[in-house]
Amino acid sequence: MAKKFLIGIDLGGTKIAAAAFDLAGKRLGKIARLPTMASMKPVVTLMNLKRVVKQAKLEAHLTGTPVAVGMGSSGPLDLENQLLQDGDSLPNLLGFDIGGFCRQEFGAPFHLENDAACFALGEAVYGAGRGREIVLGVTLGTGFGCGISIGGRIYSGATNNAGEVAYCPVGDSDFDTAGAGNGVVQQYLKHCGSAQSDSITAKRVGELAEQGDVAAIKAWEGFGTVVGTAIGTLCCVLDPHVVVIGGSVSHRLGLFEPALVSAARAILPATLRDMFRVAPSELGDAAGVTGAAEHARLAYSGGRSPETS
Question: How far apart are the C-alpha atoms of 278 and 281, rounded to whole Å?
């Protein structure tokens, strides 16, 4: 009898990742990755989506049809109708019926969610939030992503928009602008007094800070203050057990964590302030596909935990 398996997909503006999982939530084989090529015609991105799922099955030595497919994609999303709505990262797929496409191509029930929500779920069940009831997941990369897991399930809210905080104000900017990689760059340019340059990146500012560059060190401290203010505000509402931080910018967490924690605690009530905890992602870039597969697994199994499925 053919092995039953799930497919988890992480669809972003830069890359598409996919992996196969068994019904206990264990990943089978390596994660397959291909570029999204979002600026090209939709058929190119969709072809790469099909190819990356095929490659994920090959990596796991699997044939046949998955029992369910889960996908995390950049938001906002129309989850009820399973439509993509991110005109910034996936402009040529704006309004696209990704649910209909995936059900037809992969022959299995399809479950769409926000990529940051999948990150939070993956970390809550299998990563840094394991064993915690309320997990706030924050991804810092090209944008500021936010996902919420409660009781090992994604919390989506009344209209499926819980965690869509990109345009919430912080200081004289917003979460998505100031709390992402470009926010680091802007902090650096402010502190070094240079005119804006296309050559500077958050990665480069990290390298400079590690070499002792004063402006770069101050930039990361300023970035940490902004992110900490944003996270502190979210924690005042959600009161999570842990905040798990991932994304490409989080690789330099050591440079901005003290400022982040200080800024967050400054606005938290006393009890929450004392238990406030930030943890780096344990799953890394596997968190998205893991959470997407877990979201599909929960739907397939009727919500049973991995241990009882």
Answer: 10
23-49 pLDDT, tens digit per residue, is 999 999 999 999 999 999 999 999 999
| Residue 142: other Cβ atoms inside 10 A | 20
**CA atoms of 272 and 283, how far apart (whole Å):** 26
pLDDT at 106: 97
> Taking residues 293-297, what's their average pLDDT?
97
Question: Can you give the pLDDT at residue 307?
Answer: 61
Q: Are residues 134 and 276 in the same domain?
A: yes
Residue 243 lies in domain: 130-281
CATH assignment at residue 198: 3.30.420.40
Work out how many domains the chain is built from and give that number: 2
Asked if residue 123 belongs to a domain, the reply is no
Peptide bond connecting 91 to the previous residue in cis, omega within 30 degrees of 0: no
On whether residue 1 sits in a domain, the answer given is no
